Amino acid sequence: MLGRKDTAEAVEKRMRINKYIAHAGVASRRKAEELIKEGRVTLNGKTVMELATIVKNGDIVEVNGSPIYNEEKVYYLLNKPRGVISSVSDEKNRKTVIDLMPHVKERIYPVGRLDWDTTGLLILTNDGDFTDKMIHPRNEIDKVYLARVKGIATKENLRPLTRGVVIDGKKTQPAHYNIIKVDHEKNRSVVELTIHEGRNHQVKKMFESVGLIVDKLSRTRFGTLDLTGLRPGESRRLNKKEISQLHNIAVNKVK
């Protein structure tokens, strides 16, 4: 059962079904479109196949056989520890970020993902529109990572990252770097990298493309947010000012 709010809040206005699913906190709009294409969404008992389907007052929408309803929008900041999956559930029964937040009643999910062995800042919410704004590359929201790499980082070998490198057949957007520490004796370096995208294993692959292998990675900042005051595994609810600042970054970047 996906949970529910008062039925009077179910549909406040006409909206496309993918947007309705996102507003209900089930998934982002993009993920909602996938659910529809997979035949997992019904409207008034009938399977929905058209992405442009409109939901009206009184309509009943179900995902995987469970009715969904709009919830209060909530936003959380989590310091994700190593060995935790950035997912709502896991078929291998590994610990997920949701397991770290049993106090949250709403159907939250992570905004983007961090690898199993990557630690640091992760936002969780039930607001699909917010999620889309935060993860879309065009909004150029800074995502800052601190990487410990095998090899000696220099301006020369990191320069390609500032122009973009090709990984998985697609060129990355220009990144910014800052060499924090170089240990010649241990053949190891620490580099801060700022990117705007969130592709699969992107940071690790970017470093690998310039001959550096990541052996420890943490996300330290996302837009205006950092991990001040949060230990690994701890979380807190974002306040209205923090949420507004993130929205403003996305809007201003688009302009």
Automatic annotation (TrEMBL):
GO terms for cellular component: cytosol. Its EC number is 5.4.99.-. Residues 15-78 form the RNA-binding S4 domain. It is an enzyme of class 5 (isomerase). Keywords: Isomerase, RNA-binding. Gene3D superfamilies: Alpha-L RNA-binding motif, Pseudouridine synthase I, catalytic domain, N-terminal subdomain, RNA-binding S4 domain. It holds the Pfam family S4. GO terms for molecular function: RNA binding; rRNA pseudouridine synthase activity. Belongs to the pseudouridine synthase RsuA family. PROSITE patterns: PSI_RSU, S4. This is Pseudouridine synthase. InterPro entries: PsdUridine_s_RsuA/RluB/E/F_cat, PsdUridine_synth_cat_dom_sf, PsdUridine_synth_RsuA/RluA, PsdUridine_synth_RsuA/RluB/E/F, PsdUridine_synth_RsuA/RluB_CS, RsuA_PseudoU_synthase, S4_RNA-bd, S4_RNA-bd_sf. One of its GO terms (biological process) is enzyme-directed rRNA pseudouridine synthesis. It comes from Streptococcus thermophilus (strain ATCC BAA-250 / LMG 18311).
